[in-house]
Backbone:
């Protein structure tokens, strides 16, 4: 990770949306972050991370906890990760600004912001104004819009948010697009090309379709434990070996179909990560419930994906 990311340091490839380690008592567990980073780099071949996002249960964390976690992620990632993007979105503009200022202090490579989801912005202009107020606190830090309407309920097309955003946020660098709307995604790619922004896809089971539309990379939770396989998918796609890329994508879809029959959610996903990685990331924080035994899902994963 660089001392301070520059706007021309383009984020691309796989980005793991990291889980937040907790103790059995529900407190943040900083001791696991160093081994976690080593696991991603050495076992999965993933060299970029997106911390304190949805997978990281950010909305269940206090501002102080998020600052503590972000600081340790950035510290432990030095010389091991290419980029650390810190999600700083909150329901409160002031909290988002505070987290953004802290991200600059700890030399994060970029910040991302989700749209508020309690008092929801209903227009693209409202979303952009919120993003702009966060970005102007740290105008030199690369800025990413985090679009995830299924969670926020903010159903404003991402393409509308991107329209003219470069004039409002000179540090604007890209979008984390976590929606199944591939038409909106394609229009984001089209609009972003002239500015050379990063357009990163966030629906793991549809990545191949996004690559065909021009995605620069992907941010996802499953890349924590299947990053090595998805790197192969991307390599096959880049080499024009679409049949082989499809085989990997279809396996991912088979796993998701099986997992959803077993109540797949953040709690189950985190437990699966614990099982597959050998790390002790603990349970999720309430209101997300701990999952039941995930032995069947672990076995299904191993049947689909042999060791890298």
Residues:
């Amino acid at each position: 990770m660089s001392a301070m990311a520059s706007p021309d340091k383009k984020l691309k490839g796989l980005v793991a949306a990291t889980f937040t380690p907790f103790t059995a008592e529900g407190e943040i567990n900083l001791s696991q972050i160093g081994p976690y980073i080593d696991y991603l780099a050495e076992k999965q071949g993933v060299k970029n991370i997106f911390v304190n996002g949805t997978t990281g249960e950010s909305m269940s964390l206090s501002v102080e906890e998020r600052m503590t976690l972000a600081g340790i992620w950035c510290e432990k990632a030095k010389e091991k990760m290419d980029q650390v993007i810190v999600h700083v979105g909150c329901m409160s503009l002031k909290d988002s600004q505070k987290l953004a200022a802290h991200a600059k202090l700890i030399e994060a490579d970029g910040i991302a912001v989700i749209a508020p989801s309690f008092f929801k912005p209903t227009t693209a202009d409202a979303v952009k104004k919120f993003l702009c107020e966060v970005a102007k606190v740290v105008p030199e830090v690369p800025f990413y819009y985090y679009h995830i309407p299924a969670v926020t309920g903010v159903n404003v097309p991402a393409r509308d948010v991107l329209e003219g955003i470069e004039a409002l946020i000179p540090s604007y660098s890209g979008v984390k697009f976590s929606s199944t709307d591939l038409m909106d995604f394609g229009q984001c790619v089209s609009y972003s090309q002239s500015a050379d922004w990063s357009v990163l896809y966030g629906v793991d089971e549809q990545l191949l379709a996004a690559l065909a539309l021009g995605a620069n990379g992907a941010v996802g939770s499953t890349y924590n434990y299947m990053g090595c396989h998805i790197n192969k998918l991307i390599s096959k796609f880049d080499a024009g070996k679409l049949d082989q890329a499809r085989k990997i994508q279809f396996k991912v879809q088979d796993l998701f179909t099986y997992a959803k029959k077993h109540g797949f959610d953040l709690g189950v996903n985190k437990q699966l990560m614990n099982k597959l990685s050998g790390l002790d990331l603990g349970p999720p924080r309430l209101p997300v419930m701990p999952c039941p035994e995930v032995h069947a899902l672990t076995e299904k994963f191993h049947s689909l994906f042999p060791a890298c």
Summary: Strands lie at 13-17, 48-51, 83-87, 110-114, 143-147, 172-177, 198-201, 217-220. The first strand starts at residue 13 and ends at 17. The domain at 13-241 is CATH 3.20.20.70 (TIM Barrel). The two ends are 25 Å apart (CA to CA).
